[in-house]
User: What shape does this take?
Amino acid sequence: MDEHKENIYSHDVRLEMSDTRLAIEKSCSRLNADEDSSPDTSSPPANGDYSHPVYKEIALANGHINRMSKDELRKKLADLKLDTRGVKDVMKKRLKSHYKKQKLMQTAAEGGPTDTYYDYICVVDFEATCEEDNPAGFLHEIIEFPMVLINTRTLEIVDSFQEYVKPELNPQLSDFCVKLTGITQKMVDEAEPFPSVLEKAVAWLQERELGTKYKYAILTDGAWDMSKFLNIQCRLSRIRYPQFAKKWINIRKSYGNFYKVPRTQTKLSTMLDKLGLKYEGRPHSGLDDSRNIARIALRMLQDGCQLRVNERMHAGQLLSVPSSAPEEGAPPPHNPRSRD
Assistant: This one.
């Protein structure tokens, strides 16, 4: 989701208030931390144990990196044949993560700690019906269902899925919606309704053995896609909310926590810019947005971020998942049951 899309769908203020409270709580918990001499806890070891001597070495290296100038950081990254793009804080994080990864690789061979979670990450960014000025109580229906699959081992986009969806409550798209998304009336008229498209998406995930042979997680740009759009759509389609989508990675939270920036700097266009990346494709296209979100996720993985699940749905409510929670992937995908 991008800045314009956020403005259209931002009438659920409670989500942002919840995020703000969480950010304040996290900030308070770090008040006594000495960043120059402590391990980088934004990506904790899988067992949460920092007693291994390797973390002392990593902490000392972090202190040295924190004192480097922007030119020194760029030169060191170039010497290591690493990406030199991005603002100073991004380059610092990249260099710290490179050193951390090298040390952990060495200790892993000796039975030491590692920091690997999911085999695959599946990026989802729905497009939905909208008006230029959405009336009170407007129910957004999903009209594009895209997924982009990231292999966390090879750090590549390896596959994608896209289906348009026929809206049933408001089958006629507004001129504003067509212009914004590039989705035409003909595209949705010829598409299948949401339950059928969801079945195709589930089959696509199953064919790739996600949740069975491979551990995976869903990733979104903000909380809206799952907590709002999918939630509304399932109610309209009279099907239960799918289990595999009940937990996800909100990349905005992950980006803000990892690079230590405020939530105001975590819009899609801003994240790309701060990482030295350009948007590729057509803005507001669900598939192109998903690919660009995936590019941000790949850069974060390359910089050492673990991208753990940080949000979930419970009894129809959006909740945060603390970083101390046990690490777990999404369950095997199955078609949800009818609500009738």
In short: Residues 8-43 have pLDDT under 50 and may be disordered. DSSP finds twelve helices and eight strands in the chain. The CA atoms of residues 123 and 294 lie 6 Å apart. Strands lie at 120-124, 127-128, 142-151, 156-164, 216-220, 247-250, 311-314, 317-320.
